[in-house]
Structures are given as structure tokens and as C-alpha cells.
Amino acid sequence: MKNLKFRIMIDKFFIILIAILTFAIIVPLFAILFYVVKQGVSVINWEFFVSLPAPIGVKGGGISNAIVGTLILIFLSAIISIPLGITAGIFLSEYNSSRLSNYVRLSTEILQGIPSIVMGIIAYIWIVKPIGRFSALSGAVALGIMMLPLVVKSTEENLRLIPQSLREASLALGVPYYRTILKVVLPASLSGILTGILIGIARVAGETAPLLFTAFGSPYMNVNILKPINSLPLLIFNYASSPYHEWQRIAWGASFVLIVFVLILSLMTKGLTRKWKTEF
Amino acid sequence: METPSLSRSNGLVRDTPLTRPNISSKRNFPEIFFRFTLFLSGIVVLLLISAILLTLILNALPSIKAFGLEFLSSSTWDPVSGKFGSLAFIVGTLLTSFLALIISIPFSLAISIFLGEYYKKGGLPSTLGSTIELLSGIPSIIYGFWGLLILAPIVRAMEMKLGIVPYGVGIFTASIILAIMIIPYSASLGRDVINLVPSELKEGAYALGATRFEVIKKIVVPYARSGIIAGFLLSLGRALGETMAVTMVIGNANFFTLNIFSPANTMASIIANEFTEATGKLYLSSLIEIGLVLFLITAVINFTGKWIINRLDIRGSKK
Predict the structure, then answer these.
(1) A25: nearest CB among B52, B132, B243
(2) Fold of A46-276
């Protein structure tokens, strides 16, 4: 047996090492947030939100088209993924151990693991190629499929938390099965499902890779979903890798807006869980 | 439609939904329609994943036919003469991801132990927990942007001091960014499994006179080992598929290299860079085949990780 003092010393040393390594993780976080805020805030003003990107050499310019584009893309992908995601989630929780539901569960796992760039390829082949041009719709399809597994999973998991007695009570009152699910079980797990949806939105809001050859980006304001559209991450990518200082400044500003947007979404998620949580 | 079977339900586990017997046929229609919708959406999800896989395979077919297995073993990427081999990108992907994993391991392990064993509850761990959550919420494009403008110059200065060709961008820089991005994943899973270690085991060891370090080294970590490894695998799966952050800092060089300070390309970044410029069927098809290979590699890694986690759940429930 080793000397007791030595062992205690090792123990002390170990906790110090663990603490140092743990707190080291804060360094990159603050470094990133610090730079984004420092570079971003100076760009932000009213004009930044309402004007279009300026051509090279012209000072100023804004990101209004990217903000509108991001919102359109999120809205479309939500329309694509939420209805299907919720019904598939109900299916998984109701037909828990049927063979089909095992396959569906497996598919959801695979869907979740697909690299985002591959989703871009799929949307390109499915939508861009037949239409013949880049479009907001194709970007939304890629984002929607990425969001789908998150919605399915959160719906399934939250429905399972609802106690069996609640269904039995409703069925005992003579409520048909489908109404029990739609009017009793689903509302009871609403907060959890909404949380899942918000997490999904937060995830796709920052996605760039699947949009590179689907939504493509555009310097103009566009609300036609069959035309190329700009989005915040795409704008950051295009401007960040450009050599023009003015464009890089705009990219920092856009990064700041994007981070704030994602932060607000995650705060909403937390608030939702706390406020609407149904306890049984 | 599926009917509830008595043989499978044991009263504790809900196998099949409760159904009302003898519903009149008039009220039965919405019922049937509802069930039909549920089944349909399940089938749509199933079809979706099959269609994705089929689309990738069909569109990669020209390249698979033209190059066969040589596609995976050759590192010639020459769009001008129409010769495509993906070895350089496969190696680039594996090199960046594994290097990122190695960099991230000490940190994520430390966080897992710190939050799972030393400080389980209270203000400090919950602040730390939300900090880590925040880190995982930052969009990858912002990591890439930050890496390009802030981290790459730092790496360049370091390389100059070390006397290496100072590219700044390259595999090493990409790995650092990736490591920061994947730490939250393995750390949060690691914390959960370390939390699951039964306190009887730990108390037994303390009673024998072990110090806390010895308990962690000989009881906690071995017990939680498979869960920790699963966390590493899942974060590796994420690193393999990450595109934007890597594309911005890897330097985009299409040659085979094992030098970690050299610029390179990963499978995801070559697709991101060249897909829109790809002219010719074979060129596009080769890029799609890279996407297919990337998809398969990530799927295998993810499944191994999830398989380990599922086995853990079974063991936990038997206790």
C-alpha cells in the first residue's frame, strides 16, 4: 500500500485538474460570444435590419432579405415537418411494439444521423433538378426533413409520460379513442411537444450546409418560394469568406442577430418547460 | 388495422391502445380515419428514409460503375480529365474527426466527472450545465467564422514559432473547432451515466479506505465505461458529418496528406465546395457517392453508439 499522505495528495491534485479542465470549456464560449458581440453590436442599427445588402465598395447595407428568408425557410420547414412529425410520434407511442413501429423508430434514428450536407444533396436531386433552379422550397424540404426526427421523438417521448389512467378516465366517459388522443392526451403533453418543436427550429435556423445548393442565397428581397432565397447562415458564410472588410463586418452583425435569435428560442424552451409542465 | 392482443399485454406494459368494443358503425368512421392517418404517417417516415437511400445510390451509380472500388482507394481528384477518387477526403475526414475526439476527451471526461460525481446539485453545476448547453446551441457557421478570423491567426502564429509552414488553416485548426463543438455531447451523456453509478458501490469502496480519486478511478469510471464510450462515439458521429465549421477552416486542398498542419479537405467540405460548380454527370455523381459513403460511415458510428446506450438501459431496468 502506498503512503497515505501521497494518496491524499494525488486525490487533491486530481480534483484541481478536473476543475481546471472543466472550467477551461468556458474559455472558448466566452471567446466566441465576446467577439460576436464586440464586432456585431457596432454594426447593428435600424438601417441594418431594414435595408438590403450593399454592393462591394458601398458602405452600409443590411440584412433584411436574409432575416425575411430565414423566417420563410423556418415557416415552410415547420409546415413540412410538424404535422407529419406529430402524427408519426402518436403512431409510435400508440402502437408501441408493433413491427412497423420498430422500423419507423429505426428510420427516425437514421434520419437524425444523416449529415446535413447529405440532406442538401437529397433536396437538390428531389426539388432543384426537376424545377431547374435553386429555390426556397428545396431549402425548406431539406430543413424540414432534418427537423422531422426531433418532432417525432419529442412527441413520442412526451405522450408516453401521460399516465394510462388519464386515457382510461376519458374512455370510461364514453369518449371515442381518437378524441381521447386528440382532446385529452395530446393537450396534456403539449408543452413537451412544443419544446421539441422549438428545439428543432433552433437547430435548423442555424443550418447552412443543406442550403448551399438548395436555397442558394440571393442579394435581393424575395418572397417567392420557387426562387433562390437568402438566409442568415448563408449570408454569414458568403460574407465571412470574402476579402472585403465591410462584408466581414456585416457577417459579424448577422452572426450576432443569429446567436440572439437562437438564444431567445432556447430561453423560450426553458420557460415553456417550467411554466406549462403538467405534473402527474 | 391492428387489434389488441391479450397474449402480449401483461397489464403493466402498454402494448396496444385501448379500444372501445362495439362502436356503432356511424361513429366508427373518424376512428378508422384517425388510425389510418397514424399508420400512414408511420409509413411515410419509412418511405422517406428508403427514398433518401435509394436516391443517393441511384445518383451515385454512374460513378460506382465507372470507378468501382478504386473510388475508395485512389486519391486522384481531377475534374478536368474526369478521374475521381475519394481517398484523400476520407482520410481528411477521419483525421480531423479523430483528432477532434482526442482533443475533446480530457475535457469532456473532466466535465462528466465534475458534474456527475463532485458537484451534482447547486448553483455552480447548473450554471456550468447551461453554459455547456449554450455551447452546443451556437450555429456551426459561427464556429467556422470565429475559427477563420480568430483561431486561424493564432494557429498561424504558433506554427511560425514552431517553424512549420504557417498556413493557419488546416486539419489541426479544424480539429480544435470540432473538439469545442462536440464536447457538450459526450460530456452530457457522460454526466448521466456517471450519475447512474450505484452509491452502494462507492460507499463500499470508501468504507475500505479508498480516497475519492481511487473511487473514481477504480469504481465510477469502470462502471460507467460503456456509456462514456457511447458518448464518444456519438460525438464522433457528429464530427464526421459536420460541414460548415470545417469547410471554413480546413483550407480546401484536394491532395492526400497525413500532415495535421497542412490544409486538406473532408468529405463534407468537398461536397460543400464543389457541388454547385460540378459540371458533367460523372463529376456530380462522384460527389454524390462521397455523400453516400459519408452517410454510411456516420450511420455505422451512430448505431454502434446507440446500441451501447440501449444495452445500458436494459441493464439499468433490471436492477
Answers:
(1) B132
(2) MetI-like fold (1.10.3720)
